[in-house]
Amino acid sequence: MVDTFSSIPIVDFRRLQDPLTKAEALEQLREAIFQVGFLYLINHGLESLVKGTHEKLPELFALPTEVKERCNMINSPAFVGYTRLGAETTASKTDLRESKAIRLRMSLPAPDNLRVIQGQNGPPEVHQVSPAAPGSQGVGPHKDSTGLFTFLSQDDTGGLQVLNKNGEWIDAPPIEGSLVVNIQQGFEAITGGICTATTHRVIAPTTKTRYSIPFFLGVRMDLTLDQLRESAAHIVKCIPASDDRKKRAVDVPSEFLSPLYSCFGEAYLRNRIISHPDVGQKWYPELYERYTKEKLT
Predict the structure, then answer these.
(1) Span 56-91, pLDDT tens digits
(2) Could you give the CA distance from residue 214 to residue 280 in angstroms, rounded to a whole number?
(3) 154-181 tens-digit pLDDT
(4) Buried b (16+ CB within 10 A) or exposed e, 87-123
(5) What is the CATH number of the domain that holds 51?
(6) Quick one: 166 exposed, middle or buried, by C-beta within 10 A (0-12, 13-18, 19+)?
(7) pLDDT in tens, 262-284
(8) Is 103 among the domain residues?
(9) Alpha carbon distance 158, 174 (integer Å)
(10) Is the overall model pTM greater than 0.85, yes or no?
């Protein structure tokens, strides 16, 4: 068995700010990022804001269908808007997730095909996973794709699981007031795959609706893989090597480590087209045909 994690570490942001505890807290943060790829962040100062937002989510998703459909993602080549239940696919299976992607678009230089999705770093998304039969896929196994790190607020329902290096699914139960932080594929690409984005999934609840709020910290879409690696070469030298062959045997392949794509934005576009096939077929039919036939390794 590989030396790996069996629970998600907790990092106290307040201790990171205190000179008396900063060194110890930084060591905990280092271990969490390099060895696990997931952590709980507590005492971050956003607790009241997050709580108030969660209180509004049932009301948002209870809006009449015709109201939500006015901003359906199918109308957006930038993959922004409302995703109805059953319209999103992860690991080739339909998710039991309804979501609202509300992101800022910014003017950044990018190849022509990527201009509509640039600047995807912005306000959080909001997700709802509906009750289903025991063991149903709420959100299938995946790695977050947008950039560097994800900051997630989950309610008290549970269902989030993280894949460790032995190929075991580890529960990430809710901790009140915390943010779940995990590495995205952009950071994985920067480190040449040494610091891996950790695969995770959500098992659908059986008796109550699950709400969550993820914020995706992105990077420039026109960055190439070589540029990404060069910019963080000094970080890679500090990352301990690990044996995760068992995890990779059941892991999710990454577009962002593939030489098939010219830059970060193209890899991201491929990810969105595969995850939202209806949007992909409408706006990018040729790319949809190409990407669905390509096999990532």
Answers:
(1) 999 998 999 999 889 899 998 988 888 888 777 777
(2) 22
(3) 999 999 999 998 999 999 999 999 999 9
(4) bbebeeeebbbbbbbebeeeeeebeeebbbbbbbbbe
(5) 2.60.120.330
(6) middle
(7) 788 888 899 889 888 999 999 99
(8) yes
(9) 6
(10) no
Q: Three-class SS of residue 32?
A: helix
Q: Is residue 5 part of a domain?
A: no
Question: What are the two backbone dihedrals, phi and then psi, of residue 216, each rounded to the nearest 5 degrees?
Answer: -110, 115
Q: Which single residue is written with the structure tokens 């990532």?
A: 296
| C-beta of residue 211 within 8 angstroms of C-beta of residue 58 | yes
Residue 226, classified by CB atoms within 10 Å of its CB into exposed (0-12), middle (13-18) or buried (19+), is exposed
* Token reading at 100: 């609202």
- Beta bridge partners, 56, equal none
CA R_g for the chain: 19
Residue 115 within a domain: yes
Cα–Cα distance between 42 and 179 in angstroms, integer? Answer: 7
Domain total for the chain? Answer: 1
Q: Does 18 fall in a domain? A: yes
